[in-house]
Amino acid sequence: MDNESAKDPHLRSWSSTDWRQNETVTPVDGDPSDDGLVAGTLDERRSFGARSAAVVLGQVVARETQGAHEVWAHAAGRDLAVTQLTPEPCRGHLLRATLGDMGFDAGAFDGDLRVRGIIDQKAFSLVSVMEQEGVLNQWGHLVEEGDIIAIPPGGELDGRFQGHVAYAVVTAPWDLLMQRAEAFEGLAEPGFWTGPAIYSPPPEARAACKRVLQGCSSLLRALGGGVPSSAVAFLRNELLDGVLTAVAKVQVGGGRRQGVLNAARIVRGAEDFVEGGGARQAVQIEDICLALNISRRTLYRAFHDLLGISPKAYLRLKAMSAARARLLDAGDRPTTVTQVALDQGFWELGRFAGAYRAMFGESPSETLRTAQGDSLRR
């Protein structure tokens, strides 16, 4: 779309901030920024008393993360399978905010991950790639820094994230998305949003979108755990308008890519077959080829093109990552290391523990104890 988009007059350009910086939450009685908006919001709370004036409609959690599963999978309403493709801990940081019926995630991590699954069953998700080093693809399509991935309710995130990745996710219910889209020519048509898509805005639109998302992230960190009603209303509009403005700048025919490419389709089919077949380690490559009606060579080529590893290596890593996800969930669903290992097809427990430590930087029993400890502290 090369039509000029309408823009709410309150949407401002934010000053650049360091996206990679792991900030600590600033107390609300301090002055976290020279920006007039932040100071004004906090002044409102000071004027009426920090404890009684603001009606808190939003919540913010900001923390360091020790692994990819914490970044992607552990959130309400999500059903994501995360497979770590290379050894060493995948560390990062995460900010997660609820703003009424809308959500906002901002985070970064370093690693090589296969991520597939549903972000939200009921809401629309707009994923902005803030920083990217290495290979990043969705549905087999390459994704560049500044691209926006649009996923309708119940749609799948399906791709590979390699290297350093910083991202932001705006999650909004359908009616709110359509309400804000009315201000942008061409975006208010419901058919525009029916399928998953990757949008590549021009450079100036990418930069403007990044400034808005960074600014909102900084404001949320400054506000701390609770967000007053005045800030919730502002942030909901600002976040959606910032992303929609960038999408509206996409040139017709030049920025929208959707659909699943062949290599991604083959990998998805192999994953679905394995998930339906019980223990992953027992599945043979010949069984997958037969189920998908493809040759062994075609299967190997698809995995190398999409993930850079062989199908057998991927199945081992997928089982190992599934074991970690289960151990991390032990606070809500009690289990043992032995049971998890056997469920994922690892029959030699000593080798499983050694491979697990090499992959994630800690033993499976350490993961289990941490999950159980976190559950007791809730």
From TrEMBL:
Residues 13-25 have a biased composition (Polar residues). It holds the Pfam family HTH_18. Residues 268-370 form the HTH araC/xylS-type domain. PROSITE patterns: HTH_ARAC_FAMILY_2. Residues 1-11 have a biased composition (Basic and acidic residues). The keyword Chloroplast does not apply. It comes from the Bacteria. Residues 1-39 are annotated as: Disordered. InterPro entries: AraC_XylS_family_regulators, Homeodomain-like_sf, HTH_AraC. Keywords: DNA-binding, Transcription, Transcription regulation. This is AraC family ethanolamine operon transcriptional activator.
